[in-house]
Amino acid sequence: MLHRNSPGTVMETPTSPLRRQAGCAKISQHIHLIMKTLVTALLLCLLSLPALAVNRLLPTNIMAGTIASVDGNTVTFVKSESSLLRALVAALIPTGQSYATAPGLRIFDGDNRFLLTGQLPTLVGQTVGITLDMQGNINRIWVLSDAEIALLQQQQQ
Asked: Does residue 73 sit in the same domain as residue 141?
């Protein structure tokens, strides 16, 4: 606080310590409130990230089907059939085709996370989508959700 003592001289009078502490407490409360708001906003953003991964883009040349067996670097793949009769015949008479896996095989789970190639045997019996490289080897595998399977069946018809 400034105080005029005489013409031309200005003296500073110290403010009371209680007044300074009250001002600091208010500023501290405001900073604390802002920090709480920012942390809450960050947590909400992080919680919404899995929802963004649901709508993933699948290539147009994907083949949907089931992995019948895995033996080392060989995967037996059974294509999904569009009609119920063909699906029953395929279940009774296995008509799978064996493919070798490419050296750079990439496997994506239902949440679009990478899986290791050692986890490939755990995918036996699951509905997946595959793509092939130029040599006819499987280079990408996606574990498909029910919604993605329905979408692929609509595109095939």
From this structure: yes
79 phi and psi angles, rounded to 5 deg: -65, 145
Q: What is the pLDDT of residues 14-55, one digit of tens each?
A: 555 555 566 677 787 888 888 888 888 888 877 766 555 456
Angle made by CA atoms 15, 16, 17, in degrees to the nearest 5 = 115
Per the structure, how many domains does the chain have? 2
Using the predicted structure, report yes or no on whether residue 96 has a pLDDT greater than 90. no
Residue 57 domain flag? no
d(CA 149, CA 63): 11
Q: Please calculate the CA angle 19-20-22 and round it to the nearest 5 degrees.
A: 65
- In this predicted structure, the answer to whether residue 114 has a pLDDT above a threshold of 80 is yes
Residues 69 and 39 in one domain: no
